[in-house]
Write a structure and sequence with these properties.
alpha/beta; Undecaprenyl pyrophosphate synthetase; 6-stranded parallel β-sheet; 6 strands; 47% helix
């Protein structure tokens, strides 16, 4: 099973408590760690988080980005050295235009990917400096560069960031009260994904809520366009 998550609401959660925006990301990372443990305990093979979009990279205030990048650098290194990650044989990967990130963060990403690259039991993915439209554009550019003449869905998939990752069975988005959108997340791969929206802000999203979302998926009849 592949569960993908858009962990929205960190800043709004922080503002409601009179905290600076970047503090919301600190609590958001803690929630991410809890959900990862729960997913592993449930035997979910693929877990993908929308960590930081290209829009965030372009538009968020410099101070907030600096705090977030420092936090991510620290937590990614901790993740790479986490005994549980190695005990459970979790491969950690980062998907997106990684070259757009600060050097120290890129180095942390490389460190985590190298330390876990041989694992095949569980797969933990982070979409960072990511946009689903850019992913498709980059795939097309690579196909053109290789001079491939016959292009079908299989060829496109083979050149996506997610080339060896199955499409999500379920996409969970937190922090959604009335509006419901994907925000350019996994556009190619979400064609037949199921969706689960909750108004709960990400820092308040609990492992039990995650479990309920997966239980809801199991009760659905998936038709895949039939």
């Amino acid at each position: 099973m592949h569960i993908a998550i858009i962990p929205d609401g960190n800043r709004r959660w922080a503002r409601k408590r009179g905290l600076p925006d970047w503090k919301g990301h600190v609590y958001g990372v803690r929630t991410m760690e809890k959900i990862l443990r729960k997913a592993l305990d449930m035997g979910i093979k693929y877990l993908t988080f929308y960590t930081f979009s290209m829009e965030n990279l372009k538009k968020r205030p410099k101070l907030e980005k600096r705090h977030l990048f420092n936090l991510l650098e620290k937590k990614i290194k901790e993740l790479a050295d986490d005994e549980e990650i190695h005990k459970r044989k979790v491969r950690v990967r980062f998907l997106g235009r990684i070259y757009r990130l600060p050097k120290k963060l890129r180095e942390a990403i490389k460190y985590a990917e190298e330390k876990t690259k041989k694992y095949k039991k569980f797969f933990l993915n982070f979409c960072i400096a990511y946009d689903g439209r850019d992913e498709i554009v980059d795939a097309i550019r690579e196909i053109l560069r290789k001079g491939i003449k016959k292009v079908d869905r299989r060829v496109v998939k083979k050149h996506l960031y997610t080339r060896d990752i199955p499409s999500p069975d379920l996409i969970i988005r937190t922090g959604m009260k009335r509006e419901k959108r994907l925000s350019a997340y996994l556009l190619w791969d979400s064609a037949y994904s199921e969706f689960y929206f909750t108004s709960t802000y990400w820092p308040a999203f609990t492992p039990r809520m995650f479990e309920k979302a997966v239980e809801d998926l199991k009760r659905r009849e998936r038709r895949y366009g039939r």
